[in-house]
Amino acid sequence: MSDPREELQRDVERTRRELGETVEALAHKADVPGRVKEQARDTKVRMTRATSEAIESLPEPVAEQVEKARRHPAAIAAVLIALVLVIWKISRRNG
């Protein structure tokens, strides 16, 4: 038979450990900004991986053009904005 004091000590240690784990879990749950940053970082990693895989599956000339475009995002943004403005202007004339 074990000593009741030893059993009590083990119970106290187990309770402290469980309480520590609970507090840690609650702190993580309450850290919304931290969790959002973590999720954004994970999403960025997944999207980067998926983009790389998609580019690798393209024919070589197309993949080269995509890589060039990725190096110049401001130019792509400018072209997209211009395209949206042209579409908007045409739709206002016809509407």
Sheet with the most strands, sense and barrel status: none
Helix content: over 70%
Strand content: under 5%
Strand element count: 0
Give the integer mean of the pLDDT values.
91
InterPro entries: DUF3618
Region (Disordered): 1-44
Keywords: Membrane, Transmembrane, Transmembrane helix
Protein name: DUF3618 domain-containing protein
Explain this structure.
The chain crosses the membrane at residues 74-91. Residues 1-44 are annotated as: Disordered. The protein is 91% helix and 0% strand. With 95 residues, the chain is an all-alpha fold. The protein folds into two domains: 1-57; 59-94. It contains four helices and no strands. The N and C termini lie far apart (90 Å).
Helix/strand layout:
Elements: H1 4-30, H2 32-56, H3 60-71, H4 73-94
Labels describing this entry:
elongated; 95 residues; mainly alpha; single chain; 4 helices
Entry summary:
Pfam families: DUF3618 (PF12277). This protein has 95 residues and is mainly alpha-helical. It is built from four helices and no strands.
